[in-house]
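Narrative progress, year one. The postdoctoral researcher (J.K.) led the effort to move from monomer predictions toward full complexes, under supervision of the PI. The following entry was the first complex the group processed end to end, covering 720 residues in total.
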Amino acid sequence: MSPRADAVRNRARILTAAREAFGRDGVDVPLDTIAERAGVGAGTVHRHFPTKEALIGAVIADRLDQLAGRAAELGDQAEDFFIYLAELVDSGRDNLVLSAALDGTIGTEGAASAARLSGAFDSLLAAAQGAGVVRADVTAAEVHAILAGVLATESRLPPERRGLGLEVAIAGLRASPPSR
Amino acid sequence: MSPRADAVRNRARILTAAREAFGRDGVDVPLDTIAERAGVGAGTVHRHFPTKEALIGAVIADRLDQLAGRAAELGDQAEDFFIYLAELVDSGRDNLVLSAALDGTIGTEGAASAARLSGAFDSLLAAAQGAGVVRADVTAAEVHAILAGVLATESRLPPERRGLGLEVAIAGLRASPPSR
Amino acid sequence: MSPRADAVRNRARILTAAREAFGRDGVDVPLDTIAERAGVGAGTVHRHFPTKEALIGAVIADRLDQLAGRAAELGDQAEDFFIYLAELVDSGRDNLVLSAALDGTIGTEGAASAARLSGAFDSLLAAAQGAGVVRADVTAAEVHAILAGVLATESRLPPERRGLGLEVAIAGLRASPPSR
Amino acid sequence: MSPRADAVRNRARILTAAREAFGRDGVDVPLDTIAERAGVGAGTVHRHFPTKEALIGAVIADRLDQLAGRAAELGDQAEDFFIYLAELVDSGRDNLVLSAALDGTIGTEGAASAARLSGAFDSLLAAAQGAGVVRADVTAAEVHAILAGVLATESRLPPERRGLGLEVAIAGLRASPPSR
DNA sequence: GATGAATGAGTGTTCATTCAT
DNA sequence: GATGAATGAACACTCATTCAT
């Protein structure tokens, strides 16, 4: 029981190092690099995450949980959906992994987290659609796909234009006015 | 002059194989796989493209040229811009490379092609903005970024929803009506 | 601290295998061959010596250190210089690397060892020249070059004539008698 | 019969290019480089010299023939032997191949040339030994080995000290004066 | 005969994973 | 549990040699 403290700590350090490394350089960074940055041996990484894919999945799951938590905090006001999108994109600086999280590229480990996020997200979307501010014909999965695209766009914009991708997507998602 | 026939044929076969392989599985596919699919030896790939990067660049340049050619065929009607976007996205099935083409990740070999595309694209965008159908504040480079995002979105949509990403982007890019 | 045992052992085994292989067949032997002869995997060789050049450098440095050590043991008698030359040539059985060591073809790893040898060698030469038994106009660097030549000669002599090259060189290096 | 002119010319061009390339950079230069410098295709090189080893052998044989010719021109004066050694070393600028020529590393193609050189060389040496200016106990083969060493030495000396290796070797080869 | 494209085995090096300590 | 050395299958790339034209 006592030596567990180190293990927990190491797991967290590895996750942090992995989040940074994957975010900055993509998933092709060697595990050795992550191990080094986490201050642990290469074997320790594998004890916690038997496979590289498992580590990637864990990083994603971790992030999804955060996002799900944030979604739950938001109310059900019509505009909350857009606020959430903004936060999601904002937090998506390390989009290389997060965008992967938003399609099916999630290891088994992340299944639960994905489901959690899904539930929270569904509510926000439903509220916005109910209020008539978002196109009624898009599903949560489709918004995910659009979000992945927004992240890709944002990563290609110069810093001073950050937000343009989201802006366009939001404008495109808003329900058309009755006259059309 | 005559033995060139084989060389030309092989070059084309390699490019085709590379386009497919890169498109399907990303640029991490081994060159050996591409060589095999093209029905040539590994060395032949290197004779035509001394570096893997060169091969990637060539695949991209090839595609950019096609797109530039198509852009030139289009007139300067206001809506032509959207038609072109649609074609671009349509042709972007192998988005993994094309999306790379739309930011700066182009080898020197592709420089000319990129310039060609740029010119054609600029004209279409200018016409559409002149006609007041596209937001006046976006530049061609920014539309490129948005396009990359659309491709990312499209690749994550189920077949029956193909086009939704583009639809949203176009809606978002249209100039807001005066009353707003 | 404890697992180092294997590492130390492997490093030594690799160095030994490399010394033999390089000595016998020149530096063009594949690293795989060396790995195999050392009884280790290919990756292990690279862990200890990140580059082939580094391995070559280490083999050379190793040998230079031995030689420098031996030089230090010798006194400053006039004839000690010749004794040392003899030992050097004797130990130069694997001349392919040692001869490379005697000109500038040494990686950075060997710099310290080369300096060590140089110092020891300079002393011996100076003593011999001071005693008037060696031509006063040759520098240590030049003797190195001559030595490289002797090694080349020796490697081409049949076993029963071993030593002839050194003999000729020593005779040629001796200070001419006053009457001439 | 008429197209033979090109063939002869190509053979010569290849030999020249090979001599230069091997001399400058050692025998590891790619054949393609030699073909290019000779202004011929890679296949042409192989038509004339079925194997890389054959080309190396031919370059050596070529040089040996020159040397044999020069030896024949010299008379049988006692000092002619030393003059010849000097010329040999002088012409040995591209010592990388020539030194290989002086031991057994000669392909079958060079056998005849080696024999030719041997005869000429034997005479010069015999004359010098007969006149008592060269140690009587060294054979022609041994002088060859010594010569290889001298070439190795010379290649390691700075330009302004060129000749020192030969000087030392000659001094070492001279018959000791009776009193000793 | 000449050309130069094609071949394919081989090289140095990287890296996820395993395992002795 | 942690460590980091060992493993070995890949990979991109080179080059002597073959062969269609």
